[in-house]
């Protein structure tokens, strides 16, 4: 029997057209089991605040930032969902800034992450903690296909920005074309978010010992072959970006 407490109609539902980036923490179960709960909670809260505050600080100083543009960070267990409330060149740029801060936070807390973007219509209700819509499912499906630490920037999102902005993202190397390793074994050259240039501005610090002991590529107690494969694929991407930076 349905309750009489809430009787919503279709006209009561206000949806959003925006960009989203969905990230999962890889190896989340071992991380939970190997640490006490207070450590996990603190890391979650600190990462969430780092992403939100650093992103907002960057965009609030823009003179041409629309007053209506917002970006939100939602975290549930191993999933981080970042979304904008509109589809425009500047809102996608804001999403990429949030992705940058997502990787900085993940790197600082040594937590490997994997993500994908999507766009379209979705519903958000902070009062009832309900977030749903096709773009969230699409981003989740694309995220799950990958076999590395990284983020797939999907064509669906890039098709929503202007040609000028699209070219600017490429020229500034915020996105880079790369054959993202997929679990299926297929090879598909698409666009990936270039987190490497941000994290490794000084190439001298990029060495195997550093990566495996002080980054999200460190080996855990429960290290398995699947994790080893993801790490190798990620190191290949790092080498690809750094070598391209060096000779361009």
Structure description:
- This protein has 248 residues and is an alpha+beta fold.
- It is 44% helix and 23% strand.
- It contains nine helices and eight strands.
- The chain has helices at residues 28-34, 37-60, 89-108, 134-145, 155-158, 163-171, 196-199, 208-213, 225-246; strands spanning 16-25, 71-76, 79-84, 113-125, 130-132, 150-153, 175-181, 187-193.
- Strands 1, 2, 3, 4, 5, 6, 7 and 8 form an eight-stranded mixed beta sheet that branches.
- Helix 2 (37-60) packs antiparallel against helix 3.
- The longest helix has 24 residues, at 37-60.
- The N and C termini lie far apart (66 Å).
- The mean pLDDT is 86.
Helix-strand layout with pairing:
Blueprint: E1 16-25, H1 28-34, H2 37-60, E2 71-76, E3 79-84, H3 89-108, E4 113-125, E5 130-132, H4 134-145, E6 150-153, H5 155-158, H6 163-171, E7 175-181, E8 187-193, H7 196-199, H8 208-213, H9 225-246
Parallel strand pairs: 4-6
Antiparallel strand pairs: 1-3, 1-4, 2-3, 4-5, 6-8, 7-8
Helix pairs in contact: 2-3
Low-pLDDT parts are none
What characterizes the major β-sheet? 8 strands, mixed
Helix and strand composition category: alpha+beta
What is the helix/strand order?
EHHEEHEEHEHHEEHHH
Q: Helical percent range?
A: 40-55%
Number of helices: 9
Percentage of residues in strands: 15-25%
Determine the mean pLDDT.
Answer: 86
Shape: globular
Number of strands: 8
Distance between the termini: 66 Å
């Amino acid at each position: 029997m349905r309750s009489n407490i809430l009787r919503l109609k279709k006209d009561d539902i206000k949806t959003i057209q925006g960009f989203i980036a969905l990230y999962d923490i890889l190896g989340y179960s071992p991380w939970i089991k190997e640490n006490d709960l207070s450590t996990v909670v603190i890391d979650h809260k600190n990462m969430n605040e780092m992403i939100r505050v650093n992103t907002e600080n960057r965009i609030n100083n823009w003179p041409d930032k629309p007053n209506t543009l917002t970006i939100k960070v939602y975290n549930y267990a191993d999933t981080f969902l970042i979304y904008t409330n509109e589809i425009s060149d500047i809102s996608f740029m804001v999403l990429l800034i949030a992705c940058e801060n997502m990787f900085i936070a993940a790197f600082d807390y040594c937590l490997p992450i994997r993500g994908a973007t999507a766009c379209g219509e979705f519903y958000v209700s902070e009062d009832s903690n309900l977030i749903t819509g096709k773009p969230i499912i699409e981003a989740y499906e694309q995220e799950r296909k990958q076999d590395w630490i990284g983020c797939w920037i999907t064509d669906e999102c890039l098709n929503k920005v202007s040609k000028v902005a699209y070219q600017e993202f490429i020229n500034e190397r915020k996105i880079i074309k790369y054959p993202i390793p997929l679990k299926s074994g297929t090879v598909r050259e698409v666009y990936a978010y270039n987190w490497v240039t941000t994290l490794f501005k000084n190439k001298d610090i990029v060495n195997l010992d550093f990566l495996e002991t002080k980054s999200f590529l460190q080996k855990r107690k429960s290290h398995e072959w699947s994790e080893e494969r993801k790490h190798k694929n990620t190191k290949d991407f790092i080498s690809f970006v750094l070598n391209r930076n060096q000779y361009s």
